[in-house]
Amino acid sequence: MVSLRRPPAHYLEHVAGLREFFDRYAPIADTPARRNTEYQGTVRALARFYIPPGARVLEVGCGTGDLLAAVSPGDGLGIDLSEEMLRLARTKYPALRFRTMVAEELDLGGERFDYIVLSDLLGYLYDIRRVFDGLRAACHPKTRVVLHWYSRLWQPVISLAERLGLRYPLPVLNWTTPEDVANLLHLAGFEPIHRRGHILLPRRVPGLTRLANRYLAHLPGLRLLTLTNWVVARPLDLPPREPPTRVSVVSPCRNEAGNIEPLVRRLPRMGSHTELIFVEGHSRDGTLEECRRVAEAYPDRDIKVFVQEGTGKADAVRLGFTRATGDVLIILDADLSVAPEDLPQFYEVLASVKGEFVNGSRLVYAMDPRAMRFLNLLGNRAFAKLLGWILGQPIKDTLCGTKALLREDYARIVAGRDYFGDFDPYGDFDLLFGAAKLNLRLVELPVRYHERTYGRTNIERFSDGWLLLRMSLTAAARLLFVA
């Protein structure tokens, strides 16, 4: 049996003792006396938030299979070193696959998965880095590894609970910090892209547990006290399945007649082919006619012109993306406040897989003081702080209209749009929140921000500021206060 008081002398002793322990523990693992239904229910709810139904899911250290079944995989494989645990799992969930295997010796014969889950497992592993190294063979470029484990801060609380008989004593070997795990992921070729703490109260306290776990756990100060650390990571340096070559630039334009031809002349060619899509929004200055004229005047450029049926930038962006044919989708506002010459950098980030959602940032380089009014600048910085907290990834400029992503990822955002609802008239936040829900790697790319030379801005500081706050609250309810 694995000693609870000393680390094992060597790897084989550790594996043999751990297998013996869990084989003996399996018959009582599912009994009401040993189940913490509040904690396990919260973990399952969080796993369903991070992992969409229908995905190919591998769980390493699956135990009796409850968590794997809870995420409703299209194809689910659970591995565990305890045959007794897996015997129960096969009985309970015959539609899922289970294999007896030690985590440090992962060998799945080339199978690859969309999500790999390690739930409450890191504490039992003899060699965490070796496990992370082995996971890479089960990854494709879009795979996400979802990990959660006990916070080291809770070690004395859990030890006390075991001594008092309030918790079954388990052979926890490691008490790692998020920094430890991030370093081990890095050494194994993974990049952590999302980190959050969850669960303040692992036991049910009527009237308090839901409040504490869903809301209080995410407040400054209190979030440092959470029981579990959650990290989502992606593999690096895997060749993309189909490198993107064709680029579609969508330019919503309303009352921008004086900017149309300069935009066409200045737009660089990217990839193997670049198409430019103007989506005209019921202008009063002849923008539609100018778009059509320029499309005819530049036959060597692939220029398409559409008129949106609805109103607002979101409607224009969605129409443009629907009609686009490129592998890479880029938004460029027609006011030319962001230079078209900056767009190749957005394409290069996606093509190199350094990022999966590229957001322009106007707040790095010096800008013309007339380009952004002071109150707009303050509001932008405030919303950046708020949304960075909500998204779980740092962001500096939430309101830059220049964004880029792969067509395949946009399709996934569209498929999950009902999760947030139709709340965004701009289109930028619909994409940003959707990308965060998919745990895409968000990269901010500094751009130069210029004063517009034609027309006037369509932004209303105070009414739009109130709308941004409402959208932020919607995002918090869907991305932060989830379990």
SSE blueprint:
Elements: H1 11-29, H2 37-50, E1 56-60, H3 66-70, E2 75-80, H4 83-92, E3 97-100, E4 113-119, H5 128-135, E5 139-150, H6 155-163, H7 178-187, E6 190-198, H8 209-214, E7 228-235, E8 246-253, H9 260-266, E9 273-280, H10 287-297, E10 302-307, H11 313-323, E11 328-331, H12 343-351, E12 357-361, H13 374-391, E13 403-406, H14 407-415, H15 428-437, E14 442-446, H16 461-479
Parallel strand pairs: 1-2, 1-4, 2-3, 4-5, 8-9, 8-11, 9-10, 12-14
Antiparallel strand pairs: 5-7, 6-7, 11-13, 12-13
Note down, in words, how this protein is organized.
The chain has helices at about 10-30, 35-50, 65-70, 85-90, 130-135, 155-165, 180-185, 210-215, 260-265, 285-295, 315-325, 345-350, 375-390, 405-415, 430-435, 460-480; strands at about 55-60, 75-80, 95-100, 115-120, 140-150, 190-200, 230-235, 245-255, 275-280, 300-305, 330, 355-360, 405, 440-445. The chain is an alpha/beta fold. It has 2 domains: about 10-235, Rossmann fold (3-Layer(aba) Sandwich), CATH 3.40.50.150; about 245-480, Spore Coat Polysaccharide Biosynthesis Protein SpsA, Chain A (Alpha-Beta Complex). The strands form 2 sheets. Strands 3-2-1-4-5-7-6 form a 7-stranded mixed β-sheet, sandwiched between helices. The chain has a 7-stranded mixed β-sheet with strand order 10-9-8-11-13-12-14, sandwiched between helices. The chain is elongated.
